[in-house]
Design brief:
By secondary structure, this protein is of the alpha+beta class. The chain is built from 4 helices and 7 strands. It has a single domain, classed as Gcn5-related N-acetyltransferase (GNAT) (Aminopeptidase, 3-Layer(aba) Sandwich), CATH 3.40.630. A 7-stranded mixed beta sheet has the order 1-2-3-4-5-7-6, with helices on both faces. Belongs to the acetyltransferase family. RimI subfamily.
């Protein structure tokens, strides 16, 4: 597996992954185009043999604060370190940019992701009620220094 910059041609591979993982709360191709147009930092995890997209992640940064936009890993390769590698790529970019705080939102019922984030020193700092729509699921806001 290798991590590379997310390019426009990866959108066709990530949209079906979004549907599978997030259903009605999925991002659309247009949303990914917008993220790339805004020059946010996005990466993909590619299979070393056939360049299949295994996962992707994005980071939006301002002068001293960054937000993890999303991290998603294809179901067939979950729990094999892909999400960890993607998160590390985002945190490396935040460090390169001199970011003071990195934040993210995660569904309150996504305990595996919360545990992963905690291993990278993310701590809960708040809750956004009904954040994920249309399920009305709450989001836990987590933050780390750097």
């Amino acid at each position: 597996m290798r991590i590379e910059r997310f390019r426009w041609w990866h959108i066709a591979d990530v949209v079906p992954m979004e549907q599978d993982l997030f259903g009605d709360e999925k991002w659309t191709g247009a949303m990914f185009w917008n993220e790339l147009a805004q020059r946010n930092f996005y990466v993909v995890a590619l299979d070393g043999d056939d360049d299949e997209v295994l996962g992707y992640a994005g980071l939006s940064a301002t002068l001293d604060e960054a937000w993890v936009q999303n991290i998603a890993v294809r179901r067939s390769v979950q729990r094999r370190g892909t999400g960890r590698r993607l998160l590390e790529a985002l945190l490396d970019e935040a460090h390169r940019l001199g970011i003071k705080q990195t934040l993210l939102e995660v569904a309150v019922d996504n305990e595996p992701a919360q545990r992963l984030y905690a291993t990278y020193d993310f701590e809960p700092v708040g809750v956004r009620r009904g954040y994920y729509q249309p399920s009305n699921t709450d989001a836990l806001v987590m933050m780390r220094d750097g």
